[in-house]
Every structure is written in C-alpha cells, then in structure tokens.
Amino acid sequence: MKRVVILGGGTGGTIVANQMVRQLRQDIDAGAVEITVVSNTEQHVYQPSFLYVAFDLTAPSDAKRPERQVLDRRIRLVQGEADRVDPREHAVVMSDGVQLPYDFLVIATGSRPAPEEIEGLAEGGHHFYTEEGALKLREALQSFTGGRVVLVVGVPHKCPVAPLEFTLMLHDWLAARGLGPSSQIVYTYPIGRPHSLEGVSDWVKPVFEARGIDSHIFFNPELVDPVAGTVTSLEGETLSYDLLVAVPPHVGQEVIARSGLGDSGNWVPTDRHSLLMQGTDDVYVLGDATNLPISKAGSTAHFQADVVAGNIVQRLRGGHGSLRYDGKVFCFIETSLRKATYITFDYQRPPQPVVSGSLLHLYKLAFNHMYWLSAAGIL
Questions:
Q1: Count of structural domains within the chain
Q2: What one-character DSSP code corresponds to residue 311?
Q3: 208 in Cβ contact with 194 (< 8 Å)
Q4: What's this model's pTM, rounded to 2 decimal places?
Q5: 318-342: pLDDT as tens digits
C-alpha cells in the first residue's frame, strides 16, 4: 500500500485530498492507496468570511463546517496535534507518540496571525483574521461614534489585498451610518507605496484621494500604546487613534519549527515550480506554509493544490510528476460594501485591477458560498 499523508486540513490540504480521491478512487477502494489528512481541529474554516463578520454582514457559523463532512468518506481523518515531521523516517509523529508513515507527504499547515510580534498590538488593536478577533472588531465598530481609525499592516501577512478591502469597506460603512463627516481613516503601509503590487498601488492611489483616505507609507508598526491611543513606527512616526485595526504579521506553524524544516518565520523552503520541499523528493509544500515570494491567499493554495495532487497521482501511477506551478493567484477586491474588482497574476504577469462594479461584488459573495464545492475538489 502507498500512503499519502497530508498535514493540515485547511484549504490547500483538503483540496489536495479530495482531488486525489477523485482520480484514485479505484486504487483506494482496492486498498492500494491510503490518503490521510491530519487536522488539529474538527472544524474546516473559510477564513475570508471573517472580514464580513467584522462588519456584521455574515455570521461566524457561515464560515465553518465539520472537516469530516468536507472530506470524501474514503479519506482517513486523524484529528490531533502533530508534534513533528521526521523526513528521515518518512513519518509524521503525533503529540501522543503515534507515527504516521508516508510515501508522500503534503505540508499544508498554513500560517497564523501573530499580533504579539508588535508590542501592545494585542491589547490596543483589533484584527479580523480569526473568529475571536472578528467578533471583537465587530463590537468595536458597533460602538464607534466617530473619530480617527488607523489601519496598520505587519509583514508578511495573509491575503495581499485585505488591507485595501477593509479600508474601502470601512469608508462605505461609516458613510452609511452618517459617521463619515466626523471620522478620518488613516491607511498605513510598510513600503514606499500603498501596496506591494505595483499595479494595485497605482490603481488605489486615486481611489484613496477621491474618498479622502489619508495614506502614510514607510510605516512599519513597532509599538502600540493602548493608554495614550498611539501607534509608533520603526521609522519614528507616531499616529494617534480612536480605533486601531491591524493586518497583523503572520508566522508559520510551530510544528515546522519543531521539525527543523523552516526558516526563522517557520516557512518551508520550497521549489517555486515543482512545490517539492527543497532537498526532498517525497515532500510537497503548498499554501501559506511555503517560503515562496508569492501572495499567501486561498487561491494560491487552490492553484498549487492542482499541481501537488496531479503530481502525486502521476507518480503513484509510475509517472514523473511533471506538472509545474506558474505562480498563479486570483483575488477579488471589495472596493465598498456594494462593489468589487479583481486581480489575477503569476510569476511572469503583473496584476492590473479591472473597473470595479456591483456584479463583481455579487460574484465575490457567490464564491463565498460556493467555496465548499471548491474545498470538495469539485470547482
């Protein structure tokens, strides 16, 4: 029997597992192949929904389903904490000592927000990257009566356009509540333009100007003073706030550190085309877990999952696994509460947002519901 172990039950890991089952159903039923997903939670979470939870546009329950229901019944699900990966023994070692041997391993451990990386941020700021964080931000917005809202951005972070989406949705949200005249939105960004993607930066500059959104570049948040209501950057600039919202820096998971596989941020060195962990021939990496200079986004994990699943299936059937990831990413960008645009790009082609419109916003909302078909490996 050939064993495929997938470490992580998020978007990337779940799609890989379900796509492989669709292609290897007969082999699995015959006992020739076993696919195991290791997840540290019973719930599968669609994290982009938390942005909408913050604005009270959806409920947290809409973002969750039991992982067992999302996976094909032929997939073995192991729920528990993985202690480490042992590439020499070709096994995943669980926290209870149980070993899961593999012929192929897929690392899809994702990332986690780390507001603690910025002193005072956890106490003085809000974010929308977890259910708890989104609910706290929802309450802060509901009680907001006007003033200065400052958005700060840590690096690296998940979803490249999330800072823009929150800012533009907030502008619309404040206006709808009659708080626009009594409020100021201050958007900050760590580099010398309002977004790392040049095409997106060029697009958003006039949008900010038209809406009166104040933009501060070269602002890397270093210290938040919750008592004084200030945030200070590495560059020495201090901004006062009435409400502080952050896109917090993200880090890789601790299981990567315990395994000795990652860099200082717990990102796994990964070949940009084959998606093999560097120095191995049987370990694939995808999604946020990689160290690739490409956006950490759900669509990234999805496009990479196509390559990883296809290559493992090819190799199980005696092929070479010659599919290559081209760096493709697709992102919707909410430009208000009623309109959206999108970008698509890869290693060779830079992004260029299209004209925003209400139809694209409806497409975005529709995809939020269709995501479960995507996770099932159908879309």
A1: 2
A2: H
A3: yes
A4: 0.95
A5: 999 999 999 999 999 999 999 999 9
Handedness of CA 49, 170, 245, 351 (dihedral sign): positive
Pair (154, 185) in one structural domain? yes
CATH of the domain at 53: 3.50.50.60
Separation of alpha carbons 282 and 103, rounded Å:
7
The rounded distance, in Å, linking the Cα atoms of 29 and 10 is 25
**φ, ψ for residue 13, nearest 5 deg:** -65, -40
Residues 14 and 52 in one domain: yes
The conformational region for residue 30 under phi > 0 = left, psi -120 to 50 = alpha, else beta, is alpha
* Residue 92 tokens, joined: 């995943």
User: Are residues 282 and 243 part of one domain?
Assistant: no
CA 139 and chain centroid, separation: 23
Say which DSSP state 236 is in. Answer: S
Q: Which residues pair with 126 in a beta bridge?
A: 245
Label the pairing between strands 64-66 and 43-45. Answer: antiparallel
Domain that holds residue 183: 113-250
314 C-beta neighbours (distance < 10 Å), count? 15
Residue 338 lies in a domain: no
| 367 token code pair | 């995809």
pLDDT in tens, 11-51: 999 999 999 999 999 999 999 999 999 999 999 999 999 99
For the stretch 7-19, what's the b/e string if a residue is b when 16 or more beta carbons lie within 10 angstroms of its beta carbon? bbbbbbbbbbbbb
Helices assigned H by DSSP within the chain: 11-29, 49-54, 67-70, 121-124, 131-142, 162-176, 198-211, 254-259, 298-316, 358-375
How far apart CA 313 and CA 320 sit, in angstroms, is 10
Q: Is the distance from CB of 231 to CB of 221 less than 8 angstroms?
A: yes
In Å, how far from its chain's centre is CA 8? Answer: 13
Phi then psi dihedrals of residue 214, to 5 deg: -80, 125
Residues 284 and 230 occupy one common structural domain: no
Is 342 contained in some domain? no
Instruction: Give the total residue count for the chain.
Output: 379
